[in-house]
TrEMBL record:
Sequence ranges assigned to domain F-box in this UniProt record: 14-61
InterPro entries to which the protein is assigned, alphabetical: F-box_dom (IPR001810), SCF_F-box_component (IPR050796)
Domain of life from the UniProt record: Eukaryota
Protein name: F-box domain-containing protein
Length: 373
């Protein structure tokens, strides 16, 4: 594991760490975000960190203190065959470089905790990878046959890990199949797929569990509540706000407002509107808006995650210049936070997928390296 940007602390500060009592050092290190922890410890003697890197108690404590951290993952493609997976926490200003499984021509579809889902463009297959154990599994071909990366709708799929250390997981996605909303699910326990046609919700009632986006129309979204008996919801945009730039996932929707830039061959980002499901689950309701974004772009993609608030990431490109906007809406305080994003990698590389998640464990970052880091 390497930190994308290394700025070693002054030697005096590094020497001071050696003089601290073990208990105080333990407390300091456990509170540092993973990327900052590695940045610090790569500048001092490895013997200082070895007792902690090999201590299950320290790893558990660190993971518990940082379990709510949000992570942004970007897969860079450096033509023709070199790829790099980078990770950034919302509590750090340094990117980490994570190891990759042996996947030919990978594309990052989803992430959840220490687990990642990749598709192979050339082999048209799916690979699940656990960054903590370094174990990977090729998922058998699903009911819809072999698919390339472009066939997967990012907002309509979810990777659900099992208990930590179990190596178990489920992969679920929702699509219109033969004109009907259908849930497809792979379970690692059985190494098999199952598909279930969803039923229309008979009445408005509280919706618990996972919601996946099936398809979007101009004034209506089709959502699926995942379960043994999946059900369909059809919330409407009664104000006609959806348009063609909506980003949907998991029961919330972010609508990107933009305008054409005259003579520039691109668009300018005017703002982001966040919607949530109304009390009757049949209508989208405006929650909040981020005005005056003012960023120019020619191509834009995004992802959204709802956990401990709503995180929205927009990745854009304009004349070869890449820009990343990371927004967090705190539902309890009804306020937005802009998370600073440093340069993510070499210019000229192509993006091969992005994902938002939480709960990346320290073992995923330090495991597999000699002497722990």
């Amino acid at each position: 594991m390497e930190v994308a940007r290394r700025r070693p602390p002054p030697d005096a500060a590094a020497m001071g760490l050696h003089l601290l009592p073990t208990e105080i050092l333990h407390d300091i290190l456990s509170r540092l975000p993973p990327s900052d922890l590695l940045l610090l410890l790569r500048s001092v003697s490895l013997s200082l960190f070895s007792p902690f890197a090999s201590s299950p108690d320290f790893l558990r404590l660190h993971d518990s203190l940082h379990s709510s951290s949000a992570w942004l993952f970007l897969l860079h493609k450096h033509w023709p065959t070199h790829f790099s997976l980078r990770a950034l926490s919302d509590r750090s200003t340094h990117w980490l470089r994570l190891p990759l499984p042996p996947v030919h021509d990978p594309y990052l579809l989803a992430a959840s905790g220490d687990d990642f889902l990749f598709s192979s463009n050339s082999h048209r297959e799916l690979i699940e990878y656990n960054s903590s154990s370094r174990a990977y599994r090729r998922i058998p071909t699903g009911p819809l046959g072999r698919r390339g990366s472009d066939s997967w709708r990012r907002s309509g799929l979810k990777l659900v890990p099992g208990p930590a250390g179990s190596g178990r997981f489920r992969f679920i996605f929702a699509e219109l199949h033969q004109g009907k909303p259908t849930q497809f699910e792979y379970c690692s326990d059985t190494d098999a797929w199952r598909s279930v046609e969803a039923e229309e919700a008979a009445e408005a009632r509280p919706v618990d569990g996972l919601l996946l986006n099936v398809v979007n129309f101009e004034h209506e979204s089709v959502l699926m509540r995942v379960g043994e008996r999946p059900t369909v919801l059809r919330p409407r945009f009664n104000d006609g706000s959806l348009g063609s730039d909506g980003l949907h996932v998991y029961g919330w929707v972010a609508v990107v407002r933009s305008a054409e830039v005259a003579g520039e061959g691109g668009r300018v980002l005017k703002g982001v509107d966040l919607y949530g499901l109304g009390s009757d689950y049949r209508e989208w309701k405006m929650v909040s808006s981020v005005p005056k974004a003012g960023r120019a772009f020619s191509v834009m993609r995004g992802c959204l995650e709802e956990k401990g608030g709503v995180k929205v990431v927009l990745l854009s490109d304009f004349r070869g210049s890449r820009d990343i906007i990371w927004l967090c809406y705190e539902t309890s305080r009804c306020e937005w936070t802009w998370i600073p994003v440093p340069e993510s990698g070499k210019r000229g590389s192509n993006m091969a997928g992005m994902s938002l998640s939480s709960g990346l464990g320290l073992r995923s970052i330090v495991g597999g390296r000699k002497n722990g880091i």
